[in-house]
Amino acid sequence: MTNVEALPALTVIAALIAAALYIASYLSLLRLLRFPRNWVTTSTSELFITGLLVAATVAAVSFSPQGLDFTALAVSLGFFGVMFFTLAAPAIAFQPASFPVEFVAKHADHGGFLLAGLGLGVFAGMAITNVKLLAVLMTAAVIELTWFLHQHWARRQRPIYTLNTHDLAVLETQAKGNLVEFRRRHSISELDLAGGTVRWLGCGKRTPPCPFNLYVNRLGLNTAPCCREHLSELSHFVSTALTEIGVVHWLEGGSLLGAVREGGSLLDWEDDVDISVLLDADMTWNRLASGLAKRGATQGYYVDLFENKGLVAISFDAPRPWPFRWQHNRMRGEIRADITVYRQVIQNGIAVLERRSHKGAMPATENGGYGVPPELVLPTTTIPHIGGDFASPNQPEAYLRILYGDFEDVEYTYVNPAAAATRREADVAHKDVKK
Ligand SMILES: [Zn+2]
User: Fold this and answer.
1) Distance 169 CA to ligand 1 centre (A)
2) What pTM was estimated for this model as a whole?
3) In what order do the strands lie in the sheet containing 199-201?
């Protein structure tokens, strides 16, 4: 016991290093979550870096000059496993996921804090004396408590909306008439049934977004009135920004379908904004990306760039300063515009407008992309949509036929088949009334 005085300073430094490594692992994971959120394949190099940071944190906690601390190794591995699963669940659940993922995604906002508390409880209960492990657990607890309080506070700022007749009819059909039970079973915290009226606690720029990949795609509800409003606002922002940048662009997918078939309205189950752009030697990726990033920053939209995928994702929520910026990826829902890049290529002597990612039934190209004949798109024209004029493919109907076949028949793309079948009756009744 000769070096007792020297120990505390070294211990404090080691604990700070472990805490810093935890923060780095946490941020790296948040950054990684943008891939599953945007339905694109996760970057292997970023996955590797996150794994490396986690391994470094576990090693820093478990190894000391005295040797390996098996208890700290087991506790830190277990803690990382459960905590990172909880953090990732909301992003994974952007696509239909298994019950445990969906369940954890629903409870992730307070789940992280509960877990960190549980970790500290295990630490105290097992009378563990590893100060580095304590530092990691306390760092996680502070991060999770801050996140939980922020979300809780933001939820209280939600504006109140009423549901229109059609929204209500679809909701009641899906709930089989029992709104209270439906609200409870799916934890729909936005649905306010107090006082016998049906109201919707809507999302805003600084509140958590409605998780409509669940509400719209899996439960088969109409897009919430708040989200419809924000999807429109975001559409106008993107359209104006692309026009100012001077890039050739056009409404794509569901957005174009709404403009053509629904006479300039969003689809009732719309869950994003789709706009495509054409890049060439003059209008480069960098020019597009910097133009959008600049406008997003000044006008309060979160811009995420995926150069390898030829995709820019722009979200309605306001970006926060780094490192809080990446916490955006923890949110369950998202109001987003996907801007997909096309380039003109020559295939067997014939020009094709080609994109990297699959869309509807668009035919594959020999480069492994997907393509349409340029004359369907160019020169672009305009089409009235949600109260403005939007750029459209030159032949919008022919374009939609390539994507969806007979697009005049209503197909509930991305909606769970059972939920789609149920909502059809409410939609048919509604269309009959409108006639
Ligand atoms: Zn909303």
Assistant:
1) 18
2) 0.90
3) 160-162, 199-201, 191-192
Alpha-carbon distance 72 to 190, whole Å?
41
Q: Is 173 part of a structural domain of the chain?
A: no
Query: Can you give the pLDDT of all 435 residues of the chain as single tens digits?
Result: 444 455 588 889 999 999 999 999 999 999 999 999 998 999 999 999 999 999 999 999 999 888 899 999 999 999 999 999 999 999 999 988 899 999 999 999 899 999 999 999 998 888 888 999 999 999 999 999 999 999 999 999 999 999 999 999 999 999 998 999 999 999 899 999 988 889 999 999 989 999 988 899 889 999 999 999 999 999 999 999 999 999 999 999 999 999 999 999 999 989 899 999 999 999 999 999 999 999 999 999 999 999 999 999 999 999 999 888 999 999 999 999 999 999 999 988 899 999 998 888 898 998 889 999 999 999 999 999 999 999 999 999 999 999 998 888 888 877 888 888 888 888 887 776 554
SS3 at position 141: helix
Alpha-carbon distance of 297 to 247, in angstroms, equals: 19
Boundary (domain end) residue, out of 155, 187, 216 = 155
Query: What's the CA-to-centroid distance between 230 and ligand 1, angstroms?
Result: 8
Distance 387 CA to ligand 1 centre (A): 20
Backbone angles phi, psi at 337, to 5 degrees: -110, 130
403 is in which domain, residue-wise? 225-413
CA distances in angstroms from 362 to 66, 301, 352, 372, listed in the order given:
62, 30, 12, 7
Here the tokens at position 295 are: 């406008």
Give the whole-angstrom CA distance, residue 287 versus residue 271: 28
* 261 Cβ contact list (under 8 Å, min separation 6): 400, 407, 408
Q: Are residues 234 and 375 in the same domain?
A: yes
Task: Among 140, 155, 170, identify where a domain stops.
Answer: 155
**Which SS3 state, helix, strand or coil, does residue 357 take?**
coil
> Which of these, 277, 279, 275, 278, lies nearest to 252 by C-alpha position?
275
Residues with CB under 5 A from ligand 1 (ion): 203, 210, 224, 226-227
Together in a domain, 128 and 274: no
Note if the bond before 393 is cis, omega within 30 degrees: no
Q: How many of the other CB atoms lie within 10 Å of CB of 424? A: 15
Tell me, in angstroms, the distance from the centre of ligand 1 to residue 31's CA: 24
Instruction: Identify whether residues 103 and 245 lie together within a single domain.
Output: no
